[in-house]
Design brief:
- It is a single chain.
- The protein has 77 residues and is mainly alpha-helical.
- The chain has one domain.
- The protein is built from 4 helices and no strands.
């Protein structure tokens, strides 16, 4: 894994990795093991929160629904 270095736009880097199917290469392995579908949902939600147009971003309520309200222990099971 190569860290995202200074001067790069983190949203652009994550979006490109996600679209290219290599998002796991940019995730810090110190995070531990999580099911790929949980990481996919989280990254999709995070990117939707970074949309350029405010009206395209989810509400806080929508964010809670998007995560499925799982606890850290649920996600690691």
């Amino acid at each position: 894994m190569h860290p995202i270095s200074h001067g790069k736009n983190i949203v652009r880097e994550v979006r490109m990795a996600h679209q290219s199917g290599i998002m796991f290469s940019i995730i810090d392995n110190r995070m531990g093991a999580y099911p790929s579908e949980c990481v996919e949902r989280f990254v999709t939600l995070a990117l939707s929160c970074c949309h350029d147009k405010q009206e395209k971003r989810p509400s806080i309520q929508g964010c809670g629904q998007g995560t499925g309200n799982h606890t850290q222990n649920d996600a690691r099971s």
